């Protein structure tokens, strides 16, 4: 799935594809590079991002969705029921739902639904990173939402753990280390790690300019898109996170890791590089990036019966 943000403030490519012609051209380039689905979004959902009006979001995405859906499967990345319905009306076949609250809309319209875990809106999600067991809680919440959407008639459902959405660095790593728990639910799993801030820390480019904290005395967390250290320690760890477009290697590593773990759908900015990395690792992409999805537009095929959960 190729990411296409038509926003001025997305964390990675904000402002790059504001013009419809530029956005459509980039979408077509990603299709040529191997993307089976183009995910069009008109509202930034990075931590701390402010909401935009429905009218503004519609103005950013509708023409792009309509143009691209003539030849490929398009998903609409939105939290808005109004935007989701309008995008489907002009050709979108999947609702990529950051808030996991639009399953009933997907069921009503007969289109696919990606349920992504996010415990709170972007403006306050950084305040909601506390879990007793992040893997168990996220898995249980998503499996329940998927089952309910399927019960209502959604023809195809994916679950997405929402890396970076209301999780600190430790929570993100726990989820990545235990993708098998999500796969074991039987629901197709989608994942987006591309260019995210936690990858800047993991890439080895953190700038340790002072004595690292004593083990166990401080917790590395994410404040918006900036890693910081909280808690008492005998020293400070100062992290200079590389820019979003300089996190390619870590993005590719997590994509290969996820594919090997059985993830069905990878949401990425760098389609050609990801395809090459998967090929080099001997992990060929699925023929349509997710079983049951037509890559020529229209509603997805019927949802496979999930494994016993």
TrEMBL record:
It is an enzyme of class 2 (transferase). Residues 284-302 have a biased composition (Low complexity). Keywords: Folate biosynthesis, Magnesium, Metal-binding, Transferase. Its cofactor is Mg(2+). The keyword rRNA processing does not apply. Pfam families: Pterin_bind. InterPro entries: DHP_synth-like, DHP_synth_dom, Dihydropteroate_synth-like_sf, Pterin-binding_dom. The keyword Transferase applies. It catalyses: (7,8-dihydropterin-6-yl)methyl diphosphate + 4-aminobenzoate = 7,8-dihydropteroate + diphosphate. GO terms for biological process: folic acid biosynthetic process; tetrahydrofolate biosynthetic process. It comes from the Bacteria. Gene3D superfamilies: Dihydropteroate synthase-like. Residues 203-226, 284-309 are annotated as: Disordered. PANTHER family: FOLATE SYNTHESIS PROTEINS (PTHR20941), FOLIC ACID SYNTHESIS PROTEIN FOL1 (PTHR20941:SF1). NCBIfam families: DHPS. Belongs to the DHPS family. This is dihydropteroate synthase. It comes from Candidatus Neomicrothrix subdominans.
């Amino acid at each position: 799935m190729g990411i296409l943000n038509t926003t001025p403030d997305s964390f990675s490519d904000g402002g790059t594809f504001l013009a419809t012609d530029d956005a459509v051209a980039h979408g077509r380039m990603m299709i040529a590079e191997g993307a089976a689905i183009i995910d069009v979004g008109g509202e930034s959902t990075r931590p701390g991002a402010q909401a935009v009006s429905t009218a503004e979001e519609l103005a950013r995405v509708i023409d792009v969705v309509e143009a691209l859906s003539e030849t490929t499967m398009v998903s609409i990345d939105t939290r808005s029921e109004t935007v989701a319905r309008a995008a489907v009306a002009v050709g979108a076949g999947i609702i990529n739902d950051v808030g996991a609250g639009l399953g009933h809309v997907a069921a009503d319209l007969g289109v696919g639904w990606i349920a992504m875990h996010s415990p709170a809106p972007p403006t306050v999600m950084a305040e909601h990173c506390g879990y007793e067991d992040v893997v168990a809680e996220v898995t249980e919440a998503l499996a329940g939402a998927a089952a309910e959407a399927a019960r209502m008639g959604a023809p195809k459902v994916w679950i997405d753990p929402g890396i970076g959405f209301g999780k600190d660095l430790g929570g993100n790593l726990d989820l990545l280390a235990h993708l098998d728990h999500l796969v074991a639910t039987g629901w197709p799993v989608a994942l987006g790690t591309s260019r995210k801030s936690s990858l800047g820390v993991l890439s080895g480019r953190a700038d340790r300019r002072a004595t690292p904290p004593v083990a166990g005395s401080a917790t590395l967390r994410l404040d918006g898109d900036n890693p910081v250290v909280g808690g008492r320690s005998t020293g400070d760890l100062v992290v200079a996170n590389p820019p979003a477009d300089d996190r390619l290697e870590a993005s590719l590593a997590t994509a290969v890791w996820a594919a090997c773990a059985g993830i069905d759908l990878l949401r990425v900015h760098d389609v050609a590089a990801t395809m090459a990395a998967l090929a080099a690792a001997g992990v060929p992409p699925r023929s349509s990036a997710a079983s049951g999805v037509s890559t020529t537009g229209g509603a997805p095929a019927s949802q496979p019966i999930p494994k016993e959960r």
